[in-house]
Amino acid sequence: MSSPADTWLVVGLGNPGSAYANTRHNIGQMVVDELASRASAAFRSHKTNSHVAEGRIHVGGPKLILAKSNGYMNTSGGPVSQLLNFYSLTAAQLIVVQDELDIPFDTLKLKFGGGHGGHNGVRDIIKATGTGDFTRVRVGVGRPPGSSDAADHVLKAFSSTERKNLPILIGDAADAVELITTQGLTAAQLRFHTKTA
């Protein structure tokens, strides 16, 4: 279930277009961009209405199929379901990298299974695949201050303070994906859930 497999589909959630590229909602896509860079893999257009990069980060390591949907966050399910079918993978071989309001910025939470937690991208993936039994790398973006609207918050760019630490957060999330695919979810949770201050 959460043990390492030979091939993984790693989907970074986000919205298309330059207007959304640097927003909190697109942190998932930033993480798969980092993974593609590590694997020296280039994204190309795929018939599943997504862009896909394939590669291995380490010689002899698992194959990673990195994907970014061309559609909006709340329609992520169709491309993910089609990608699983195209590559003949099960949901147990799926890792979804998502932004998470209920986790403080600069924090990661890793889990397998469960509900969508109000996240529209995850909600649509569960609906389209018929299961919630996949791994999630939840990247904390924090809740907005005061009574600010959460929907507006995730569609805004990171603050100047956050941007200073953003490369570290993206790197940590990419490290978490690597660890899940090579040593399993439990090993990754032990490392990132017990991160020292």
TrEMBL record:
<protein>
    <recommendedName>
        <fullName>Peptidyl-tRNA hydrolase</fullName>
        <ecNumber>3.1.1.29</ecNumber>
    </recommendedName>
</protein>
<feature type="binding site">
    <location>
        <position position="74"/>
    </location>
    <ligand>
        <name>tRNA</name>
    </ligand>
</feature>
<dbReference type="GO" id="GO:0072344">
    <property type="term" value="P:rescue of stalled ribosome"/>
</dbReference>
<keyword id="KW-0378">Hydrolase</keyword>
<feature type="binding site">
    <location>
        <position position="120"/>
    </location>
    <ligand>
        <name>tRNA</name>
    </ligand>
</feature>
<dbReference type="Pfam" id="PF01195">
    <property type="entry name" value="Pept_tRNA_hydro"/>
</dbReference>
<feature type="active site" description="Proton acceptor">
    <location>
        <position position="25"/>
    </location>
</feature>
<dbReference type="GO" id="GO:0005737">
    <property type="term" value="C:cytoplasm"/>
</dbReference>
<dbReference type="InterPro" id="IPR036416">
    <property type="entry name" value="Pept_tRNA_hydro_sf"/>
</dbReference>
<comment type="similarity">
    <text>Belongs to the PTH family.</text>
</comment>
<comment type="subunit">
    <text>Monomer.</text>
</comment>
<feature type="site" description="Discriminates between blocked and unblocked aminoacyl-tRNA">
    <location>
        <position position="15"/>
    </location>
</feature>
<feature type="site" description="Stabilizes the basic form of H active site to accept a proton">
    <location>
        <position position="99"/>
    </location>
</feature>
<feature type="binding site">
    <location>
        <position position="72"/>
    </location>
    <ligand>
        <name>tRNA</name>
    </ligand>
</feature>
<dbReference type="InterPro" id="IPR018171">
    <property type="entry name" value="Pept_tRNA_hydro_CS"/>
</dbReference>
<feature type="binding site">
    <location>
        <position position="20"/>
    </location>
    <ligand>
        <name>tRNA</name>
    </ligand>
</feature>
<dbReference type="GO" id="GO:0004045">
    <property type="term" value="F:peptidyl-tRNA hydrolase activity"/>
</dbReference>
<dbReference type="GO" id="GO:0006515">
    <property type="term" value="P:protein quality control for misfolded or incompletely synthesized proteins"/>
</dbReference>
<comment type="function">
    <text>Catalyzes the release of premature peptidyl moieties from peptidyl-tRNA molecules trapped in stalled 50S ribosomal subunits, and thus maintains levels of free tRNAs and 50S ribosomes.</text>
</comment>
<keyword id="KW-0694">RNA-binding</keyword>
<dbReference type="InterPro" id="IPR001328">
    <property type="entry name" value="Pept_tRNA_hydro"/>
</dbReference>
<keyword id="KW-0963">Cytoplasm</keyword>
<comment type="function">
    <text>Hydrolyzes ribosome-free peptidyl-tRNAs (with 1 or more amino acids incorporated), which drop off the ribosome during protein synthesis, or as a result of ribosome stalling.</text>
</comment>
<keyword id="KW-0820">tRNA-binding</keyword>
<dbReference type="GO" id="GO:0000049">
    <property type="term" value="F:tRNA binding"/>
</dbReference>
